[in-house]
Amino acid sequence: xxxxxxxxxxxxxxxxxxxxxxxxxxxxxxxxxxxxxxxxxxxxxxxxxxxxxxxxxxxxxxxxxxxxxxxxxxxxxxxxxxxxxxxxxxxxxxxxxxxxxxxxxxxxxxxxxxxxxxxxxxxxxxxxxxxxxxxxxxxxxxxxxxxxxxxxxxxxxxxxxxxxxxxxxxxxxxxxxxxxxxxxxxxxxxxxxxxxxxxxxxxxxxxxxxxxxxxxxxxxxxxxxxxxxxxxxxxxxxxxxxxxxxxxxxxxxxxxxxxxxxxxxxxxxxxxxxxxxxxxxxxxxxxxxxxxxxxxxxxxxxxxxxxxxxxxxxxxxxxxxxxxxxxxxxxxxxxxxxxxxxxxxxxxxxxxxxxxxxxxxxxxxxxxxxxxxxxxxxxxxxxxxxxxxxxxxxxxxxxxxxxxxxxxxxxxxxxxxxxxxxx
Length: 423
Fold this sequence. Notes:
Layout: H1 2-35, H2 38-54, H3 56-74, H4 78-105, H5 107-113, H6 120-134, H7 136-144, H8 148-171, H9 175-202, H10 213-218, H11 220-244, H12 247-265, H13 268-283, H14 289-312, H15 314-320, H16 333-355, H17 362-378, H18 383-422
């Protein structure tokens, strides 16, 4: 009960805001699925999957920033937090500009791969890259400082902006390109709102001059690898289906996957709270495993409940939310929910291991992600085969991660007891 009260107290608004953002993201997918034709929706979801994979540095930077800000917060060293924010933002502005330019240059080849009739959607995604790459450090600072309420409000504002812009532009007849413009404008609004908040929080602190950025950035690579391979697990299937299947069935699959992703993103706020708290507790050499078990239980219940509903009444759920045009794949949403439940649990374990700087999981994760991509690429007789592959792979990876986490935890706990006895 104390754990639940603390979770609600520290992350109450974040939980509400993130769930609100998840609802807005869900509405974005659902409304776009309803307003766009299946072929256009297939274009949108496939390009968004590519966008998600390319944006690995964004998530990695936010995760890295959160961990080290939590460490500096534990040491009450706000000068280093300010220096980390300033230095990393400068790097990301340069990286964002270069990345956008490279993607714009390759727009023709990308459009051909996805069988697009125009390069415009790719160029819009390229523009969105710049702003999306600049945003994560500020959010990582808020998360590391455990300013969960401010973080939640910022996430919600950006997501609602994305939804409103997309709805208006698609209504005006701009199709998938209009929907993608929401992906550009949402981060712009979030950056504008974030700047005064960070200035107020860190105004009285001078930037540190002795911050070892190389040591901090070394943590970027395992973080980036983790997020890249995890995004392959949850997003590469859409890209492969878009490439190999007809636009019609790729569009149907996009609709089914959209419903499956609800299961994955529903507990996102809980994992964000968990990561910041585990990083700070680890820096203070406190126990973290007991709370991890509670987080896993809550996430399993939330995601499992939605998945169960998908299995019991898939057609009714799709009709209820206005996804009637995707009914040909209604029977797949239960399996997709099961796959995303395993991926939600895996995401929790992966982020936990990053927060306590245990990196043994990276090779099993890489093997799992690359193996899944290779298997689906070379063997995809039906869409059900694609989804079953994800379910089995997600389950196996969860077992492996659990063994790594809890065996290592027991060994470290035993080592600590022995050292206490010796001392």
